[in-house]
């Protein structure tokens, strides 16, 4: 049951025939998908409770529209008060294909998921194999998959998001003292009538971070990158960009490419 066939699907926005322009989709046995769907039903509510409301990917009653509206409100507020806002859009290179399996299981264990369920999920990632076409004389090869999640399985995206939550929480823990000293540069939004610090929004593996200070925003991105690298994730430097609304200061040697729009 730990074996699958992989087909490459070209990404809609890509025009290149380079291998990075294709997404590997796992063609799984029906019994496997039923089994993982059953596991997901048993852990879905707990995962949703473990993941911050700033994450809108793959959850019921959460969607990207809410994130867009919130970010637009933050931009509008910064303009009204003529405050410089600095945002960095973080992109990971082959995020779903790179995560370390041991970290996926750790994210379940540290959140006190049922031990028996964790063992069942662990078994799914014990020496998994994938078969794909070599493109030569209709031949195929089988390899052991040592990292990544199965794209095509309903359980996989939830496991990834749970891991990403661990990365972001670890990063925030490292930044706690910095945030105390930089409180005036942090964005605050109203939640249930209470001003609450907000510095990130996520939709699956896409993250935007923002503050009123360029260096602070860059530091947050670097700390997130540090913790992500531990789990096998690598920042895509070509697609990670900065946007800024400037009224008072000029950009000071930005470490990420500055753009006027981002898709």
UniProtKB/TrEMBL annotation:
Biological source species: Strongyloides papillosus
Positions of the Reverse transcriptase domain: 1-263
PROSITE patterns reported in the protein's UniProt record: RT_POL (PS50878)
A Pfam family matched in the record: RVT_1
Residues in coiled coil: none
Protein name (Swiss-Prot/TrEMBL): Reverse transcriptase domain-containing protein
CDD domains documented for this protein: RT_nLTR_like
């Amino acid at each position: 049951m730990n074996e699958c066939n992989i087909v490459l699907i070209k990404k809609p926005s890509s025009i290149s025939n380079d291998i990075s322009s294709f997404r590997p989709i796992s063609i799984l046995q029906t019994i496997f998908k039923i089994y993982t769907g059953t596991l997901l039903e048993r852990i879905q509510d707990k995962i949703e409770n473990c993941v911050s409301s700033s994450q809108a990917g793959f959850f019921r009653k959460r969607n990207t529209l809410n994130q867009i509206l919130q970010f637009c409100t933050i931009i509008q507020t910064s303009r009204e008060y003529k405050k410089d806002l600095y945002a960095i859009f973080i992109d990971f290179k082959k995020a779903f294909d790179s995560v370390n399996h041991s970290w996926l299981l750790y994210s379940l264990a540290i959140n006190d998921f049922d031990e028996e369920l964790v063992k069942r999920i662990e078994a799914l990632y014990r020496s998994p194999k994938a078969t794909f076409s070599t493109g030569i004389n209709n031949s195929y090869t089988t390899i052991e998959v040592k990292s990544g999640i199965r794209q095509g399985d309903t359980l996989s995206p939830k496991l990834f998001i749970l891991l990403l939550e661990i990365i972001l929480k670890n990063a925030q823990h490292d930044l706690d003292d910095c945030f105390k000293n930089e409180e005036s540069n942090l964005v605050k939004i109203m939640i249930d009538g209470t001003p609450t610090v907000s510095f990130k929004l996520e939709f699956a593996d896409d993250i935007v971070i923002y503050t009123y200070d360029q260096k602070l925003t860059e530091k947050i991105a670097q700390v997130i990158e540090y913790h992500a690298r531990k789990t096998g994730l690598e920042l895509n430097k070509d697609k990670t960009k900065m946007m800024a609304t400037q009224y008072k200061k000029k950009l000071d040697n930005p470490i990420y490419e500055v753009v006027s729009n981002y898709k």
